[in-house]
Amino acid sequence: MIWTWLTHLLGAASPPAVAATGANAAGPGPAETYALPRSRREQARLELQHFALRQLLGTHFLAPIEQPGVILDVGSGTGVWLREAARRWPHARLVALDKDLSLLRQPLPPRCQPVQADLLAGLPFPEAHFDYVHQRFLATAIPLTAWPGILDDLLRITRPGGWLELIEATGDTCNEGALHQQVRAWFSALLERRGLRLDAALNLPHWLHERGLQPHTLRFQMPLFGRRQGAPLFREDILSALRTLGPQLAAVNHLSREQVAETLAALPQEWERLRTSSGGIAVWGRKP
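The line above is the sequence of Methyltransferase domain-containing protein; the predicted C-alpha cells follow.
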C-alpha cells in the first residue's frame, strides 16, 4: 500500500509556491548547507524516510505530550510529519518552518501556517511560544559550530513545561563492510566541505543536559538488510540520496562518476551479506 501511495505521489503535480512569512524570512532557493536538490525525487525520498521511521520506532511522536496547543516542525520538508500531528491533535495549531518551502505539499492541514525562514539565522518566533517543537534529520544541514546556538533558540521559543524532540542520524554503522566504509568516507568529506559533522548528534543529550533539561535518549539502528523494521525503505532512502549526490561525491573525492556509481550499485549486496545497519539517535526533553 505504501509503494502504491508513493507512486501516486511521484506523479502528483508540484506544489504551488507559498509566500514567505516571519521576521527573518529567507529568500527562495535551497539552504547553502543542504546538499540535496529540491525536487519531486527528494519529496518521495523524505516520504520514504518518514514511513521507515514509523516502522522502526512504532510512532512519530516520542515526547509524552497529551494536548499541545501550538506545534512547530523545524525543517518541515514535505510536511508529512505535521500531517500526522494534525490527525493526532486535530485542535492544535501547527507551524511548518523551512528555509525553502518548495518541498511542502499542498493543500496544508487545517490550522497549519507555513513560515519560510533560515534556522541558522534565528527563529522568527517570540519566547515561550510552542508546546511541542520537533526537528528531524537536519545534521546534514547544520554546521557543527552552529548547534549550541540553535539549541538555545529552540528552547527559547519552547514554553516552560513544553517539549523539544530531536531525531538524527549519527554516522555510526553496525556490521560495516569495506564498500560502506568507503562511501561513508566519501560522504564525510563532502559534509566537511560545508562544515558539517554527521556524528554531531551524539552530543545532543549532553548539550540538552547543559541547558537544564533531563533528556530522554533512544539510540537505534536503521537496518539496511532484510525486510523487517522498515529495511526496504531505509535502503531506498539512503541509496536515493547517495545516487543524487553521486556527482558531488566524485568531484570532492577526485573520483570518476563511474567509480562512484559502481560502488553504490554494489552496496545492497554487501549490506545483505553482512547484515549492516546505520545508527540514529532520538532525544527529547521537557523545558523546566
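Note on the example: The first strand starts at residue 70 and ends at 74. Residues 40-57 form the longest helix (18 residues).
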